[in-house]
């Protein structure tokens, strides 16, 4: 696997170990994306954030 894949796997493992902090980061990234696009892609960012949370096993969602 290349460097990017290795980094992604490392990030996923860290997120699994610290899901609360990872949830805050995902929520922050989602908020920034929504702000910069004027919420034009809100449904897509919600879906992407949920997919990321599922990838590291987070059951909860963090309110923006």
UniProtKB/TrEMBL annotation:
Pfam families: MT0933_antitox. Residues 9-23, 31-53 have a biased composition (Basic and acidic residues). Residues 1-64 are annotated as: Disordered. It comes from the Bacteria. This is Kanamycin biosynthetic protein. It comes from Streptomyces caelestis.
């Amino acid at each position: 696997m290349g460097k990017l894949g290795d980094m992604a796997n490392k990030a996923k493992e860290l997120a699994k170990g610290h899901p609360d902090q990872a949830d805050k980061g995902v929520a922050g990234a989602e908020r920034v994306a929504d702000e910069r696009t004027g919420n034009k892609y809100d449904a897509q960012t919600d879906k992407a954030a949920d997919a990321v949370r599922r990838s590291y096993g987070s059951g909860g969602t963090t309110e923006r």
